[in-house]
Write a structure and sequence with these properties.
single chain; 0% strand; mainly alpha
């Protein structure tokens, strides 16, 4: 099985979105301490459960990004985009109800919207061939 890189622009953008999720997943999974500092999270003294939670989240990002790269099917890109759209929606709820109005939260919201928009735009045909 060889790595398939798409030829049309829409699928290339969706592919790059999935590749970014893979990269983020690898960083979060294998460098949870760095990720916690980057996101402004701190584990409580004597409790290291946060590392496991962050590593599992990184594994989910990794799997969610690798699946469309390996299968290259529009329906898989649809699931990928819908997942990040729901994550962006959840972040908006947090911004409104948890008083989480920080620059980092807004930046991560933009990243999640882009990660959702590129594959969804490809699946729904917003890019011309």
């Amino acid at each position: 099985m060889e790595l398939y890189f798409p030829e049309e622009l829409g699928e290339q953008l969706a592919f790059c979105s999935a590749a970014f999720a893979v990269l983020a997943g690898l960083i979060i999974m294998f460098a949870p301490g760095y990720s916690m500092r980057l996101f402004g999270l701190q584990p409580r003294e004597g409790r290291r459960d946060g590392y496991a939670e962050l590593r599992s989240t990184g594994g989910m990002y990794l799997a969610l990004g690798l699946t469309p790269i390996m299968l290259a099917q529009p329906n898989v890109y649809l699931v990928f985009g819908a997942s990040f759209a729901m994550a962006a929606f959840a972040r908006i709820i947090s911004l409104l109800s948890d008083k989480g109005s920080t620059i980092l939260n807004y930046l991560l919201l933009v990243v999640q919207i882009v990660l959702a928009a590129l594959p969804l735009a490809y699946v729904f045909g917003f890019f011309s061939a």
